[in-house]
Specification:
This protein is an alpha/beta fold. The protein has 3 domains: about 1-45 and about 65-115 and about 200-280, P-loop containing nucleotide triphosphate hydrolases (Rossmann fold, 3-Layer(aba) Sandwich); about 125-200, DNA polymerase, domain 1 (Orthogonal Bundle); about 300-365, Ubiquitin-like (UB roll), CATH 3.10.20.30. About 45% of the residues lie in helices and about 20% in strands. The protein contains 14 helices and 12 strands. The strands form 3 sheets. The protein has a 6-stranded mixed sheet, sandwiched between helices. The relative contact order is 0.14. The structure holds guanosine-5'-diphosphate (GDP) and magnesium ion. Magnesium ion binds near residues 14, 15 and 73.
Length: about 375
């Protein structure tokens, strides 16, 4: 399951956004082995394709994909050196696949800003410096451990040390290693370091409710967008307060509120969608009278591997995947008609599953 960490300075709206998320009431019951802590919440991924399938099968259960969000507090200036909650944030960030950095773009005299005024770029640099420093420590520690082997000229160690040194040079200048380019072999090595500053990230600009209608008039947001573009990071403008309001409404009221802001989906959905895209995540579906379900997989996975997401027996005893694309099923309206049109394919182990595939796995164990 996709885990996204919400980070940012204090008083930027992280917990407001998080409480909107948790009120969106994802079914924790689907995850009997997950302990949900106060700062960990699960949210269902809205997917209109699932609604179509549910209307077709009228199953007993409809199970959407879900994303776990973690409200990571305690990241302040000096946190990597023990300020605030100190290094506690590190272990949380290490665990996540993607980072959503909330940046304050709303003015409100009643809500103090830790650095006195609203300045998204300064805030981002404060936060990211802590990530760089934490990573620098990781890199230096690892280099220290490799030292002996490097001196003994062990090939792998020399390679790893070279990659680490490349990253260290940039971190030493308090710059992001994101700007570096790496070849495939280097990337593989880097993965093992689990560096915070290299995790896929988006910026969430928290703007005042009144600004939602005219995002391009919020000067902070405009500045932030320019800055982020240079770094190749996407900005999603939301109002945490509106998100919180949205989840307390029923479906129709939600749509009405969204459209009054000229939006067709919640900021939350945008965040989830972008996280999926950033991480190359896609969705396949399984259907039946008992259950219609969305499953998350990584782009490029084979049919047998996708079967394994459901159950290891499915992968071990894989025979074939009876597959129809969502587009075809939608076009032909029922599985029977899709079949008559020759749109149900029998795919083997090596088939690369596509986003929106509806699959019946045949297996034998
Ligand atoms: N005016 C205004 N206040 C907000 C907005 N978002 C959050 N707040 C308020 O800012 C304060 C801090 O928000 P919180 O979510 O706890 O921030 P956190 O420290 O980042 O978790 C709370 O009093 C929120 O109600 C916003 O968009 N506009
Ligand atoms: Mg908070």
């Amino acid at each position: 399951m996709l885990k996204t960490g919400i980070i940012g300075l204090p008083n930027v709206g992280k917990s407001t956004l998080f409480s909107a998320l948790t009120k969106a009431k994802a079914l924790a019951a689907n995850y009997p082995f997950t302990t949900i802590e106060p700062n960990v919440g699960m949210v269902n991924v809205y997917d209109p394709r699932l609604t179509f399938l549910a209307n077709l099968y009228h199953p007993e259960k409809i199970i959407p994909a879900s994303v776990q969000f973690i409200d990571i507090a305690g990241l302040v200036k000096g946190a990597s050196q023990g300020e605030g909650l100190g290094n506690q944030f590190l272990s949380y960030i290490r665990e996540v696949h993607a980072i959503a950095q909330v940046v304050r773009c709303f003015d409100d005299e009643n809500i103090i800003h830790v650095d006195g005024n609203v300045d998204p770029i300064r805030d981002i640099e404060t936060i990211e410096l802590e990530l760089f420093l934490a990573d620098l420590e990781t890199v230096e520690r690892r280099l220290g451990r490799l030292d002996k082997k490097v001196k003994a000229n062990v090939k792998e160690a020399v390679f790893e040390a070279a990659v680490l040194s490349k990253i260290k040079t940039v971190l030493d200048q308090e710059k992001s290693p994101r700007s570096l380019s790496f070849n495939e072999l280097e990337l593989k090595t880097i993965k093992n370091f689990n560096l915070l500053s290299l995790k896929p990230m988006i910026y969430i600009a928290n703007v005042a409710e009144a600004d939602l209608l005219n995002l391009e008039e919020n000067a902070s947001l405009v500045k932030l967008k320019k800055y982020a573009e240079q770094k190749g990071i996407e900005v999603i403008g939301i109002s945490a307060q509106v998100e919180k309001e949205l989840v307390s409404l029923d479906k129709e009221e939600q749509l009405a509120l969204l459209s009054s802001y000229g939006m067709d989906q919640s900021g939350l959905n945008q965040v989830i969608q972008r996280s999926y895209e950033l991480l190359g995540l896609e969705t396949f579906f399984t259907t039946g009278e008992d259950e219609v379900r969305a499953w998350t997989f990584t782009k490029g996975m084979k049919a047998s591997e996708c079967a394994g997401i459901i159950h290891s027996d499915f992968e071990r005893g894989f025979i074939r995947a009876e597959t129809v694309s969502y587009t075809d099923l939608f076009k032909y309206k029922t599985p029977q008609l899709a079949k008559e049109a020759g749109k149900i394919r029998l795919e083997g182990k090596e088939y690369l599953v596509q986003d929106g595939d509806i699959i019946l796995f045949r297996f034998n164990v």
